[in-house]
Design a protein that fits this description.
Helix content is 46%, strand content 6%. The protein contains five helices and two strands; from the N terminus they run E-E-H-H-H-H-H. Strands 1-2 form a two-stranded antiparallel ribbon. Helix 1 runs antiparallel to helix 2 (64-77). It is globular, with a radius of gyration of 15 Å.
Length: 126
């Protein structure tokens, strides 16, 4: 669960095209197929890009192809190795359709993956 909102600016710095991941957004980070799990972890250098990608797949305010391209761009900004960026991007491009469709159905049913955080987390207490 995202504890504080954060934004990613698409394209050149100053473009004003922002994706803001809301506080309380529930993510599974990178959905890595079992076959690739020895090579690509669910979380790592690509983690924040994966959260933005999850958010784009849930929000669906852009096309799937655009969401995947933003994911690839964000991994580049984070310094993910070219081979790993290529592998992860191809995986979501080829296999992300199921997630895209299931998120569309969830949205149609009114399922929300943004939950309010408990007060102790918002205030930073344990």
């Amino acid at each position: 669960m995202v504890r504080a909102p954060y934004s990613y600016e698409i394209g050149e710095l100053g473009s004003g095209d922002l994706i803001t991941v809301e506080q309380g957004f529930q993510t599974d980070f990178a959905s890595v197929p079992r076959l690739l799990s020895p090579i690509v972890a669910r979380w790592g250098q690509h983690g924040k890009a994966a959260v933005v990608h999850d958010y784009l797949y849930l929000d669906q305010g852009r096309y799937k192809k655009q969401s995947d391209e933003i994911f690839r761009e964000a991994m580049g900004v984070l310094g993910v190795a070219r081979w790993k960026k290529f592998l992860i991007y191809r995986a979501v491009k080829w296999f992300g359709g199921g997630s895209w469709s299931s998120n569309l159905k969830r949205r149609e049913r009114g399922v929300d993956r943004v939950q309010p955080l408990p007060v102790r987390l918002v205030e930073g207490r344990t």
